[in-house]
Amino acid sequence: MTLILFAAPDLWPDYEPHLAPALAAAGVEAQIVTEAPDPAAVDYIVYAPSAPLQDFAPYSGTKAVLSLWAGVERIVGNRSLTQPLCRMVDPGLTEGMVEWVTGHVLRHHLGMDRHIQNPAHLWQPGGPPLARARPVTVLGVGELGLAVARALQALNFPVTGWSRTAKEIPGLSTVHGPEGLVQALSSAQIVVTLLPRTPETENILNAVSLAHLPRGAVIVNPGRGALIDDDALLAALDRGDLAHATLDVFRVEPLPAGHPFWAHPRVTVTPHVAAATRTSSAVQVIAENIRRGEAGMPFLHLVDRSRGY
Ligand code: NDP
Ligand code: OXD
User: Fold this and answer.
1) Which of 144, 207, 250, 296 gives the lowest tally of CB atoms within 10 Å of its CB?
2) Top-level CATH class of 91-269?
3) In this structure, which residue's CA is closest to atom 7 in ligand 1?
């Protein structure tokens, strides 16, 4: 079977030493290539959105496209892509996301900035409440949101999770749908957005929904930039309705120089670094999916085109 990697050229040296052994360990005999003179003979495409490939039609014999990214909004609507599309669910990526979110939530919960940025060397007594008194809402309780919710719960934050469909998750308070969103935001002092970008989630945090948050709430967005209406967010920050927004993802990346987020005193910009796909664990996921494909078993992490994630 032939596998082709379509990604930025600098990713190949990362993947090459790991992919072949992972496939061999999964019992799959593979020829790994970066160029295909006969696209119809390619069995699997490992794909990152940074790759120039946009026309999947010539890959008529391809059994699956395996995304290196968790978020698939840049590829899911591609009409030439008729092959099954699997997104990345990588334990290493999840671990990274848990660390990033926990760090940024703790920064705001503990009020760390007050002491780190203290040029006048003021002695500022008064500590934060315990985490048990700081309700957190996680928008999206899929692979990443649920792991984040569990980590925050382990620190005693009361966590509410919001999803599209109703969920019974032991020990986690969950709500769903539009009414659930109002409920989830109304009590949240910190909101973490881990939703995919779809037509339904675009601008889910807008002037109306943001107004449900208690004054002084904080937003931490490692999901996608388009989940938030930028202007509504800036207005809420300027009024002091929101205390801070920590943003990892943006409508345009890199965030253009001069964008108001860069200089806003209540915004922290991080450059889409919340959680990277980790080569050593991701190749295991790819190999397992190819093993399944070759054995005629259903693929893991299949994207539902109608939902967009
Ligand atoms: P999943 O598909 O596992 O989870 C998505 C969650 O969002 C599910 O709980 C789903 O609900 C919920 N959801 C989707 N649409 C709606 C809606 N309309 N209303 C309410 N809830 C909705 O995705 P992951 O957890 O793996 O990833 C989430 C996102 O994180 C990715 O799509 C990507 O954008 C982002 N990401 C960012 C990274 C970074 O470095 N900044 C790295 C990796 C991912 P339900 O359970 O009902 O289906
Ligand atoms: C992803 C991301 O979706 O890095 O994997 O944002």
Assistant:
1) 296
2) alpha beta
3) 140
CATH of the domain spanning 2-90+277-294: 3.40.50.720
How far apart are the CA of 194 and the centre of ligand 1, in A? 5
Distance CA 303, CA 296 (A): 18
Residues assigned a catalytic role: 224, 272
Instruction: Determine whether the shortest distance from the Cβ of 200 to ligand 1 is under 6 A.
Output: yes
3-state helix vs strand vs coil in the chain, percent to 5: 35, 15, 50
Pair 161, 141: CB distance under 8 Å: yes
Q: In what helix (H) or strand (E) does residue 86 lie, and over which residues does it extend? A: strand 85-86
Probe residue for ligand 2, chosen from 46, 90, 224, 277 as the CB with the greatest number of ligand atoms within 8 Å: 277
Q: What residues does ligand 2 touch, defined as CB less than 6 Å away?
A: 69-71, 88, 277
> Which atom number of ligand 2 is nearest to the Cα of residue 249?
6
Domain ranges of the chain: 2-90+277-294, 91-269
pLDDT, tens only, 211-251: 999 999 999 999 999 999 999 999 999 999 999 999 999 99
Which amino acid belongs to residue 55?
D
CA of 124 to the centre of ligand 2 (A): 39
> If we measure between CA atoms, which residue out of 259, 208, 270 comes closest to residue 236?
208
Q: Which pTM value belongs to this model? A: 0.98
